[in-house]
Predict the structure of Antibiotic biosynthesis monooxygenase.
Amino acid sequence: MSRVRVLLYLRGDDSEPIERAYHRVSGTLAGTPGLLGNELLRSPHDPAELAVLSEWASLEEFDAWERGPDHRASTAPLRDHQDGTRAKPFAIYQVVSEHRADEFGES
């Protein structure tokens, strides 16, 4: 099983409501099986463009949560902020290869 990263694309001229919604959702999701963590990201080139990047232990655990009864209610605070300019407001990626900074030798 490989880890999975999920991107949820958000958009808003005022990021404060998005940040509040992100913190509400994150609090609700604390302790969710398989969820390793998440981050709220903002584009340095377009401050209205944000994304939530979540990391899951496996696709199976993400799918189980997504199909579960709490998924829609727990993520509802972010729904109004999804980026409607995109064909899909989210993307799912499986980690197929990885290099960490601590793996590189010193020069």
